[in-house]
Specification:
Length: 289
């Protein structure tokens, strides 16, 4: 059995975003353990040799909550390297101002500030971790990062820009008659377009039929709507990706969800695919007429 693993040690200042970094790695398929005593790390990795199967990518959060974790740090890391594991250290940091604000907002106690308060706890922690910070593979300053931006930064550190998974867009049609899709991030109402329902030969058909689609798409209002809609999303999609959003649901509705919304979604299919997103397409109410 090949037990060689990629091991990322997440450490750094309390309140700097270590939990968010750990969740980002877990979402990427890492086996994540929080607050593991350093002395147990080699034994934890040895579990793979004993038939306990887990991913070859492991992340461990180790920090000053375990007061003795610095004592044998160098020895333990060298033993892991000798065993063939690939080690990386992600050091999460933030300004004193940002850390103080976060502790004030959450009303949590700093693990080292039980006597002297948050400011003194931050000072002591910086002093304790100064040597470890100098050994870090990557230092991530989260002072000005939102949780989504921090997640995106962590994913790029482990995967590289070219391997970051594309945004998944669920593009769906629906009928307002049957209620708004609860999972929607964005809803567009196309009931302003001429309705094929009132044309006898089109009424029994749906927006996937060429005669209905042709009718909807040849309207001047439709041309202008599609042009403006594409411009909007050409702007929005990179912004959502920059913020670390991984899944976006765009719902386009008409009265019954059979004609106009279906035709519009079908017309947008190729355009969304050309933007580099992973596209999923659903016609929620097409069969309810």
């Amino acid at each position: 059995m090949n037990s060689r693993k990629r091991v990322i040690i997440i450490t750094g200042l309390s309140g700097s975003g270590k939990s968010s970094a750990a969740r980002a790695l877990e979402d990427e398929g890492f086996f994540v353990v929080d607050n593991l005593p350093l002395a147990l790390l080699p034994k934890f990795l040895d579990l793979a040799e004993q038939g306990v199967r887990f991913t070859s990518e492991v992340a461990v959060v180790i920090d000053v909550r375990n007061r003795d974790f610095l004592a044998g740090f160098e020895t333990t890391l060298e033993a892991l390297r000798q065993a063939g594991h690939v080690l990386e250290i992600f050091f999460l940091d933030a300004s004193d101002e940002a850390l103080t604000r976060r502790y004030s907002e959450t009303r949590r106690r700093h693990p080292l500030g039980l006597q002297g308060g948050v400011a003194e706890g931050i000072r002591q922690e910086r002093q304790l971790l100064s040597g470890l910070r100098g050994q870090a593979t990557a230092i991530v300053d989260s002072s000005r990062l939102t949780p989504h931006q921090l997640r995106s930064k962590i994913v790029r550190l482990i995967r590289g820009d070219e391997n970051v998974l594309p945004l998944v867009v669920l593009l769906q049609s629906f009928g307002f008659r049957y209620g708004l899709p609860a999972e929607s991030d964005l809803v567009m109402d196309v009931r302003f377009l001429p309705n094929p329902h009132f044309i006898p030969e089109l009424q029994p058909l749906t927006g996937v039929d060429s005669s209905v689609s042709d009718y909807v798409l040849r309207q001047q209002e439709t041309h202008e709507f599609l042009s403006r809609f594409k411009d909007l999303f050409a702007f929005l999609l990179p912004q959502y990706q920059r913020e670390g959003k991984s899944y976006l649901t765009v719902s386009i509705g008409c009265t019954g969800g059979q004609h106009r919304s279906v035709a519009i979604v079908e017309a947008l299919r190729s355009w969304f695919s050309s933007t580099g997103v992973t596209l999923e397409l659903v016609h929620r109410d097409i069969a309810k007429g």
